[in-house]
Amino acid sequence: MMVRLKSFRIFFMLFQAIIGISGTTHWVVTENGKIQPQLDSAFQMNQPNDLPALLQQEKRMNIVQSLHKKIMARKMVLDSQIAVLNSIGDLESWLQSSNPECISNRKLLEDFDFYASVATDGSYRKGVTQKDYLLDGIPDDGKRAIPDCKKTFPLDFSMYTFEHLSAMRNRKNLSQHQEKGLIKYLPPGTDLNKFGHQIAHGLKRNSTSWLHLNLAAIYWRVKGDAFNALECARRAIVTAPRQYRDIPLLTTGGILHAAKYSAEAAIVLHAAIDYAPTQSHQHLALGHVYAILGDYNRSLACYDNSLRLTPSMEQAKQAKFVILCCQSLTEALTALHKRLDDIVTKLHAQQKDYTEWLKLEEKILCERMKTPFAAFRAHRLGPILSNRGQSCMQRDGDDAMLSCQVANDNQMFAHNLLVDIGVSLQQLKNVENQVEKINDRMSTAKVLPSKNEHFSPIPKNSNDRSTEFFTVFMEPTSKPKYYNFEIKKSNREFENKNWPDQSECEKPSLLIDTKQYIPIYLSPENKGYIVNIFINELIGMDSGKEHALPWYPPICQTSNSFDSKFISPLLLKATMGISSPESSLTSFLTSLAKNSELAEIGQRILTATKSKVAAPWVLSMLASLHWRIAGKFRNALDCLQSALNTVPNGFKDVPLVSIASISQKFGLIDDALRTTKEALRINSIEPLTNYLYGSLLFAKKNYTGAVYHVKQSLRVDPELIDGKALTLLRTVICHKRSNSRRIGNGGNEIESCGMTYSSPERIAKHDLNEGETVLCFGDGRDCKPIQCFAMKMHNDEVKGP
């Protein structure tokens, strides 16, 4: 029984294997009953006894069949898609049938200008009368005056005038076209030739008249002078009563829009709408701005608001029609483009599969055997094989050879497919050319953003205006203090080799203790941040106004881990508890908020931090300064670590200098040197960093390095630290001379690094480690890194430290 079961299992396995075998028509029976292989069989191999070659040939055949199915399925989809394209015919006619009104009003689409001028003189507003303008009775003595708003009253900075905007900061470089369309917004009967003269006299009578300042801004817009227009508009904003402030804001937004700063114009116009949401001109102007920015949905919403307030406003009606048409045509063309892209993708895939197919067919034919026949048999078989889709020819020689080029159904299909791909690509090219022509026409409608438009982020809605305002202060808003500064040797007295003379070295004013500590604080203001407004205007406080009680100190979140490269465990341990306050730094904080005590300034910093009005690292630096003045250095380190976590790499030297200064205070000179060295790698120009590094080298008795870096600091700021830097330089040089004399008299201490040149550039170039410097010989080209340390000499014996 077991034997039968085993036999049955073997039979079943063989049966499964037989079922799994795929067959092919390879052998045929001839007319005379003889069995022979087909000449067009793929398995008529050059080497019939090569089983791996036969299996590989079978694999190729399977791939060819798979490609055939794939290509056929894709071809059916392509045929239907191209048939739809063919039904479109002339693209412009097709668009006209789907958007008849838009195509018939083509002239309006092409001529409408979304840079059209919008402004108002305020004469229609309640509370404003014609007498307020004082444009009558102006003497005309032949001399024409122009309204120079800069001479009315000084206005360097105001929180109401959007000074954080790049266009406002660079207003001297703005340019705009002449806005002659603004004439229609001037008071009735205004003589444009006398207009500027009248405004100038009006401003002489009342230099703070917001009406005249706004009219002056419009005058300069008509003239095409963006800078003078903005100077007048800025002053009109700060002098206008709150209920009328939207009018000069509308003027300002129009100037920025005309100067191609439309994104920033949107911010200003949102502010105008916040002041007066029921004024239709503001919504109209904002709609134009969003149209230029390509935000059609917001643009339509603005035009709807304008028409809701003033249904008869023709300009808003036309603008809305143009936007809807452009939106409709754009959607239609975008859908067509997407369809074209899809067809092109499929055609390229078809071409790729076709190329792979050809390679496989070529390989299959290569592996097939060329069959030898007698000449007479070739003559007889030739016509037969030709009728079967093969072209055969006889090759003469000792052994006649019948060579056949197979032209079966697959190859004919491949040829036709290649032709189809070529024709389809040409059709797509024709349609694409039509699309491009229509796109060119649409671009003349002046809706698409200009190539010269200056883009910047725009608020998602009017409520985001304050958020947009504050995010600007995450970056510097002015140039760094030492922008593009190059340190060069000066002509000052300290550059003289004989300075100071011996009598000065004998004065008691020299620093006796080489470790004497002077607190150093590198302010973010040096990097271009306007720090004073962060704890004043940006939190809604005036500099001289007291912050509301209660006052809390600006505690920074305690860090879970400190950067041990700069804030070592030794430093953390040393700063526990209260140490002597660094009162010499108090002026840095008190200068930010006049007549404010330290506790109140701490609350201001805390309010600014919670409100996120500026870069977090800058506010952390202010908080660290507060704690240094209070004598709580552990709290200061928490804030400095917080600053390190968020400060950009280019400004990392700011917190590093404070960390190094605290390290120096607690006697960790090596830690301070390492940290200051990193700060110098980031910025080798800052005079305070060079001074700090020089004082640390002096503490290590590296007089040459100390002289170099203190001189570098004085070359940038000769009055650095109220003359203390010059005193330090005098002290270092005197110590160096005294040290040299002791060596000459057989003294026991020398400076092993006296011939070194260790500028920040060389430190970076030679990748020096802590305690190393560069020793240069001759003209300074032959330089080597060396370890610097002090040595004692006893007679002829030299010992290490």
From TrEMBL:
Signal peptide span: 1-23
Alphabetical keyword list: Coiled coil, Signal, TPR repeat
Organism of derivation: Cotesia congregata (Parasitoid wasp)
InterPro entries noted in UniProt: TPR-like_helical_dom_sf, TPR_rpt, TTC17
TPR repeat windows: 280-313
Coiled-coil segments: 421-448
One GO BP annotation of this record: actin filament polymerization
Cellular component GO terms, alphabetical: actin cytoskeleton; cytoplasm
Name of the molecule in the record: Similar to ttc17: Tetratricopeptide repeat protein 17 (Danio rerio)
PROSITE patterns in alphabetical order: TPR
